[in-house]
Amino acid sequence: MQHTHMLKRFYKALFFTTRFYLAAGVIVLLFVLAFFVPPLLAVAEFCTLALTLLVITDLLLLFAIKAPVTALRKMSARFSNGDDNSVMLTVSNPLRYPLWISVLEELPFQFQRRDFVMTARLPPQQSHIFSYTLRPVERGEYRFGNSNLLVTTFFGLVQRLFAGKTEQPVKVYPSYLQLRQYELMAFQNKMQDLGVHRRRMIGHSMEFDHIKEYTQGDDVRTLNWKATARRGVLMVNNYVEEKSQQVICVIDKSRNMKMPFDGMTLLDYAVNATLVFSNVALQKGDKTGLVTFVEQHIEFLPPANKKIQLNKILEMLYAQETQWQESDFERLSVHLRTSLSQRSLLVLFTNFESLSSMQRQLPYLRKLAKYHLVMVIFFENTGLRALTTGSAVTTEDIYIQTIAQKFIDEKRLIAKELLRYGIVSVLSTPEQLTIDVVNKYLELKASMQL
Asked: Which of 44, 216, 239, 448 has its CA 20 to 30 A from that of 292?
């Protein structure tokens, strides 16, 4: 039984290369020609013997050692959704002669790639690092399979399949790489490059408290010249630190958010923007929370400004998926009204494709706007915009462009209709979503609307 098992393993690991089949084909051709030219028979027999000896030597070089190569995959324990994540595979050759290797990586099925092959030459007793990047477009748990190594020697007649045991799970989280990028740019004062600008405010980022007489050490920039003229002595404005505000991101998970863009759904873009936006709000001293809703199901994370809040938001965003049902804005309105006692900024990520669809939800948005500052984020259809920029040649082209322009204009009408009832709106493309949301938030903070 043991010998049978060893033979099966040997048979499964043995592969003949293209070079072997070419050499065998030439030998067969020589035997055929020897039927007409007898002297070629000796040449054919010599070539057969030489090929046999080379194959045996090749087999001994590859199969005499239990594990001729070793493989080790290194990557992060979690991937960032929508970003390029680096993976490194180190393959080592412990032998005293060089090897040629082809690596067939068993990538997670979510990438739908079955032909991912990398090749390299391994010098004697040295290692080679294969590096590549992967861009996931779905959140969830991924699983890498084995690294299948096809090893050949300098003869190149036989290949040995060695399955490197590199099975490894990895979780794909919302775009935390984008989060780090924003933090680094803020540190280097390069947010302007992405459209995030500082807005100048008159005064201080503090709330006015009272006027008092100037004492040594007070900031001369806070002098109140009108009060000084009335009293005849120097008077200064006294401020208190700005109070922490509540900022709640509300994500719609209905079928409207399942629309794809560049391989990712609108929900994924909303999730990535929520993570970055929540981090910015926390750095501004605000309390951040999260609400996701679809049909009658609502998940609520109370607002807080503790250090662990961002991790709680990240874990909650990780498991969110779009549904095919409609969202119940009425239930959302009631839930937020009862859960939030303090006036808050509600950042609602949704998608209205038509004016009528927005008007169905408008009464509930207006009800929320009575008690909170509501900012509605919805998406511009970039596919329609591309249709309007092309040249119209036929009547059908004109008809298509007219309809596309109608839908684009309707999106702008939605924004105006929301503004009419005191609801802040942001119409953004998916790739600019994070920048637009952060800019609008900073604008609201600067204008004291929040």
From this structure: 448
